[in-house]
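Appendix B: complex inputs.
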Amino acid sequence: MKSRTAIYPGTFDPITNGHLDIIKRAARLFDSVIIAVSNNIQKKPLFDIDERTELVRIAVQDIDNVAIDSFDDLLVNYVSAKKADAVIRGLRVISDFEYEFQMALMNRKLLPDIETVYLMPSEEHIYISSSIVKEVGRYGGNISCFLPPEIETALRNKLRMVKKIW
Ligand code: COA
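Resulting structure:
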């Protein structure tokens, strides 16, 4: 039987425990999962693409069937190039739905064969996003329950560095 590959795209600025929750669920459902870090410069990420990719690599090193890549293209082009079977997206709250619906339909218009699979993280991760974690960290709040320890250290160092530049 053909092995099934899913792509989990995102900006991952930085990867959080919420993303990891989705990745672990996807890794149980598919033979392989490619975490595709989008360059997404319009979002003005705190970490550059190489840093984000490296942080993802560190965070998922214990999950066997996961590969890490980056892309700077339309998601549909990337999915076609990888001959992937599905795109994974996390659905946290009702407000995610509208954006996800729009994106899935646009992607399907561009690439009719594309399938998007939505996974729900466990409830303790439902309210987090990379931005909110960065915001709490910027003002010295406790972020240790939202990030793997290595990612927390990297974020604290980055925020300290950026503060010096400001
Ligand atoms: N746990 C915690 N946070 C989560 C999460 C989860 N399970 N799922 C999503 N989030 C957060 C993300 O960290 C992100 O936070 P931020 O906005 O503070 O950075 C936010 O929710 C939105 O996540 P997402 O919708 O995945 O956006 P993204 O910026 O991470 O990724 C792309 C968007 C990269 C998938 C999309 O822009 C894309 O496909 N780009 C390629 C170009 C393209 O094809 N565009 C046309 C699309 S129709």
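The two ends are 55 Å apart (CA to CA).
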